[in-house]
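COMPLEX REQUEST
Ligand: MGD
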Amino acid sequence: MATHLRTCPLCEAMCGLEIEVDGERVTRVRGDRADVWSQGFLCPKGASIGHLHHDPDRIRVPMVRDPGTDEWREVSWDEAFARCEELLRPVIAAHGMDAVTAYLGNPNVHSYSLSRFSGAVPGLAGMKVLWSAGTVDQWPKNLVCAQLFGGMWTFPIPDVANTDLFVVMGANPHASNGSLLAHPDLIGELDRIRERGGRTIVIAPPARARPSGPTSGCPSSPAPTPPSCCRWWRSSTKAGRVRGVDEVLAAARAFPPEVVAAWCGIDAERIRQLARELAATPRAVVYGRIGLCTQEFGTLATWLVSVVNILTGHFDAAGGERFPRPAIAALSSTARRRGPVTTGRWRTRVRGAPEVMGQAPLSCLAEEIDTPGDGQIKALITLAGNPVLSAPDAERLDAALPLLDAMISIDNYLNETTRHAHVILPGHSPLEQPHCDEEIWSYSLRAVARWSPAIFDPGDRPEEWEVLLRLGAILMGTPAAEVDVDALDDLWFDARAARHGIDPATVDHEGRRGPDRIVDLTVRTGPWGDRYGQQPDGLNLDRLKQHPHGIDFGPSHAALDDVLRTASGDIELAHDAFLDDLPRLRARMAEPRPPLVMIGRRHVRSNNSWMHNVPTLMKGRDRSTLLVHPDDAAERGIATGDQVRVTSEAGEVEATAEVSDELVRGVVSLPHGFGHGRPGTRTQVADQRPGPNANALIPGTAVDVPSGNAAVNGVPVEISRR
Ligand SMILES: Nc1nc2c(c(=O)[nH]1)N[C@H]1C(S)=C(S)[C@@H](COP(=O)(O)OP(=O)(O)OC[C@H]3O[C@@H](n4cnc5c(=O)[nH]c(N)nc54)[C@H](O)[C@@H]3O)O[C@H]1N2
Ligand SMILES: Nc1nc2c(c(=O)[nH]1)N[C@H]1C(S)=C(S)[C@@H](COP(=O)(O)OP(=O)(O)OC[C@H]3O[C@@H](n4cnc5c(=O)[nH]c(N)nc54)[C@H](O)[C@@H]3O)O[C@H]1N2
Ligand code: SF4
Ligand SMILES: [Mo]
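STATUS: Structure written out below.
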């Protein structure tokens, strides 16, 4: 029996786990109480990490499927790469690299290897276009931060540890444990806010979002909530550093509380009261997430969160929004000064959708595959993603994928997406690889460094970063048998070192390669790092390894000057990308509201689409139900347990109704990530409770215009009993 410590890689809470192992089996998982960051906190997903590792359905060996058949064969790694070459080479020869693309899913942010190396596939290949879950997630936030602060990953983070008024819009930490906000035991922090006499206010059409505890609700309908507290603008605060205030104030005058109240479902007086509370509370902050980003006005809503924080003096201040200074230097911290983002440098072939920061809406992917003509996508590489369940207009994508000449999936499951692949290249289980988060530390206002070793030996199976480099090289034209992974790894490291201001020629690698070497780099070039000997007492990976419970450097935030990279060096609050979108908002507000709209929800025992194969997480009640307000249900003769047909402009699914007064009237809720049980998948547990695919109902055209982000919340639907 041995006890191992390691960081949970499953969400942004980054909990420290204590994992008991007997021989080859995980026997118990607990929160590590001595962990400097999470101090024993964990959730059911982290507690199930052993089941993920032992899951008999998890793919451990590369598999190939011959086109036109659904027979999979397990093959050697050499054979698998040779097959990749065989599939990709003719596509590239006939159609060029423009016919080859990649999709990056959510675990790319969380995995030790993928977070540092997934860029190598499109990078080495020289792919012009790639797709990601980012455009069904935080693209509005990226756009807003690029315009306001000069960096698409320069996210200000709510200082929850010091705030007295936490206004949460369109986020549900009770399920998600925080998003673009890394804080240990975030829910416990809500208690602590109350204990210090403060409050949390949630603004959402609550779909199981109703906080159990120290919060007060502020139900709203899913519509952007333009706050109208500009009159309380504190001219003293950061005034010298903010440009465009007059333009923003002028634009806001067209949206007084009386005008927006009906749309928000919050009465004008309550809006005014909230604005006054915000203005009068020295340590207050507004925080917005998925419910704001993934709706029709995602950019406006996300922008206004920062506008309100900045104009009410809750920016770059204790208890407000501020920029982190992480111990592990993220790549985003190396960004240089730049002008405003210009979008539309290219447009998609079929729909003509403009690119935004290098990506087009994910919902365009299907039509780019299934529409013949010059530039049609013929080969797709999926990197840890399941877009058949997570992308809007999902059924069209499901039907398009079989049209590809080559599809290669780097994934651990044979699921709804990867069943269409010709080759599946599996990664290691979370317990077979070390762990150290990369970008996520820059979502936290506490600086912590922590590294965990692998618990189980993966044997001679290649690590994912090696797989990525090999595949990238094959795409680049190197014969599969001749790829020099170490040489590519050196190139990858050297480029990264240069971006961190280190001359790679001066670095003693001490035998490190792959992600280990990059972690060493980012630790050493962080604020507490040894800078390769320049600060002899500073931190490096070897020293970090001596602290298995982590090292806590305490609260840590960056000075504005170290962060702002706009052309002016100031915060640029007003920008055409936002102001030009206001007429679209006004036009929408002049239209009648749809009688019924659908929103999503998350649950603490589920993780997007891919953890439904863990039996311990799937226990208990069905979590893929359609929540319906009692009045909406009564009107349609629907009772809990009834099978209902849900239809939208995009499609139709069947769902089990659950009548619930947790929702406001006119809003139904269906979680995404379900829709299992399809032929050719290998997810025995998930298949027992397949649930409906919410994304079959999301029209591909439903996007937030400035960012191109999918509008998966607020989709008009109709429901009827079957
Ligand atoms: N309707 C609706 N749709 C949504 C959302 C919503 O709220 N509503 N949310 C959106 C959001 S925020 C996101 S982030 C996306 C998520 O979209 P995706 O990233 O496409 O979906 P996931 O379900 O996270 O799929 C993760 C995939 O990675 C694989 N995987 C897990 N771990 C590893 C690993 O270590 N290595 C490799 N190679 N593969 C691994 C899993 O098997 C799975 O196939 O969904 C989006 N879609
Ligand atoms: N357990 C678990 N944790 C997760 C995930 C998971 O699937 N399961 N997914 C991870 C990922 S990829 C992400 S991106 C994060 C997301 O983390 P969160 O942003 O916290 O996501 P949700 O829990 O979906 O909460 C979204 C909230 O927005 C509300 N909402 C919907 N539409 C609107 C609207 O128009 N206006 C307002 N004001 N509110 C609205 C919904 O009612 C819901 O309460 O969670 C991460 N953590
Ligand atoms: S909250 Fe759960 S899933 Fe997230 S890091 Fe902690 S244990 Fe893992
Ligand atoms: Mo996400």
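REMARKS: The two ends are 54 Å apart (CA to CA). Residues 208-215, 223-237 have pLDDT under 50 and may be disordered.
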